[in-house]
Design brief:
four-stranded mixed β-sheet; 17 helices; about 450 residues; four-stranded parallel β-sheet; Rossmann fold; 13 strands
Length: about 450
């Protein structure tokens, strides 16, 4: 039976603020021209760029279609582009506004122009199957109040139905079929993606029931957006500039993406991007080896047990094999978006490239490193207590955990591998990203010594 929770509103507000204050460095995630236009769009429409970004990423994943994918070295491993995103924002912060200005026009256009009703509205297994069969495997789960979708999945699961398992399957791009008396009904592949807009408190209530070992939440990414509401004069002035710009919305961009991908496109990583991707995969391999190390003495010396002050990402099920897949998919989606947006904004028109450069992979990695911390905070905060209003558990951002581990380290320098082992459930690659940020802000120096990466910190007494 679904657990009903009620949280203290001040606790919820503080958690939400803590999440959106983990900044997503947009300058490092998207190119300058796109960033400038997105800032203009935000001021002219009150659509936060942190709500617009998940919207267009999920639309891109949907409209690339079920035949497109991204492949790693040699083409022996291919992955769907499908992505599930949750956009969290307080009431009045722009969820409905962003949905109506960014998502809905694309949905309406696809129906008028191509007779594709891409928005999924019936979340039952039968409803999903019928929708996908009728719409050639194209689909998006979205709406300005995503609480309906999440609560529907929870209720179906409590009745023993399998929508969660089906959603896990769809994220992988795989279809679903039923054998009937008159034949087989179903679909082979899908581009089903999601952009679920939701308020912080309803999200927490649903996470109580959705977090678990079924793998569904591993497939969702979460972006917390600070509410945006500019004064009328700012909106008027910037709307005039927006009307004179090359682009007013994303309809034409998404139309171009859809048309170009109807036959399917396989995206691959460049050699340099592949090398960087394999470093991330190797970091996960190190994590798995450390987690399941059979040498108990080494485990005792290298890992700190899960405790309130060291409640790591692994304790909350955040570090998973899906991490590298999310980054791979995000790199492809950012690559595709930039290729179709840049010409519209007046950039040089170039032949569409199917090879993803290292720059896009690093942009995806930067984006993921921020938003996975948003998700970690909400999952850490969820309490399993029943009853009246409960206090949310204290949380610690990943950056705070890195600083804490550095301060506890012995000696003038500490390696990223040593920190990764000390922080239960952290990837050495993610630790390195945070150490690079500490270096940029003057808290230490990161050096490569032979095969190790060492951090010398002024934080250590």
């Amino acid at each position: 039976m679904a657990t009903q929770m009620s949280y203290d509103e001040n606790d919820v507000l503080n958690l939400y603020k803590k999440a959106f204050n983990i900044k997503i460095p947009m300058h490092s995630v998207i190119d300058d021209d796109f960033y400038e236009w997105l800032t203009l769009f935000e001021k002219a429409t009150n659509c936060s760029k942190f709500l617009v970004l998940p919207s267009i990423l999920s639309l891109t994943a949907t409209l690339c279609g079920p035949k497109s994918d991204v492949s790693t070295r040699g083409g022996e491993f291919s992955n769907a582009l499908n992505e599930y995103l949750i956009a969290v924002c307080d009431p009045g912060g722009g969820k409905s506004n962003t949905y109506s200005r960014v998502v809905q026009p694309v949905i309406d256009h696809m129906y008028r122009r191509h007779m594709l009703h891409i928005q999924l509205e019936n979340y039952t297994s039968a409803g999903i199957q019928k929708h996908q069969t009728d719409n050639k495997g194209y689909g998006i789960i979205t709406g300005d109040e995503g609480h309906r979708f999440m609560s529907s999945i929870t209720m179906k699961q409590s009745k023993g139905e399998s929508e969660k398992a089906l959603l896990c399957k769809l994220w992988g791009g795989r279809g679903d079929a039923n054998v009937l008396a008159n034949g087989v009904r179903g679909f082979d592949r899908t581009s089903m993606s999601a952009c679920v807009f939701i308020q912080p408190e309803p999200l927490l209530k649903e996470l109580v029931n959705l977090k678990g070992n079924d793998g569904l939440m591993d497939r969702f990414l979460l972006i917390s957006a600070k509410p945006v509401f500019h004064k009328c004069q700012i909106v008027r002035e910037n709307y005039v500039v927006l009307k004179e710009s090359k682009m007013m919305d994303f309809v034409q961009v998404m139309e171009n993406i859809y048309v170009a991908h109807t036959a399917g496109i396989r995206y691959t990583l460049s050699e340099k991007a592949q090398d960087s991707y394999e470093e991330m995969v190797d970091a996960y391999a190190d994590y798995v080896r450390d987690k399941y190390n059979s040498d108990e003495e080494e485990k005792e010396n290298s890992l700190i047990t899960c405790s309130p002050e060291n409640e790591g990402m692994d304790c909350q099920g955040i570090v998973t094999s899906k991490d590298t897949l999310h980054i791979l998919r995000l790199s492809a989606l950012l690559h595709i978006l930039h290729q179709y947006i840049n010409p519209v904004l007046g950039g040089e028109v170039m032949e569409i490239q199917h090879v993803i450069p290292r720059k896009r992979l690093l942009q995806a990695k930067t984006l993921y490193n921020s938003i996975v911390q948003h998700k970690a905070l909400f999952l850490q905060a969820v309490s399993q207590e029943n009853g009246k209003k409960v206090h949310i558990k204290s949380t610690m951002t990943f950056r705070e955990r890195v600083v804490n581990a550095v301060c506890k380290s012995r000696g003038p320098a500490v390696s990223t591998r040593a920190l990764q082992r000390q922080m239960k459930g952290a990837l050495s690659d993610s630790v390195k990203v945070e150490l690079e940020e500490l270096q940029r802000t003057g808290f230490g120096v990161l050096k490569k010594v032979r095969c190790s990466v060492l951090f010398s910190s002024c934080l250590v007494a």
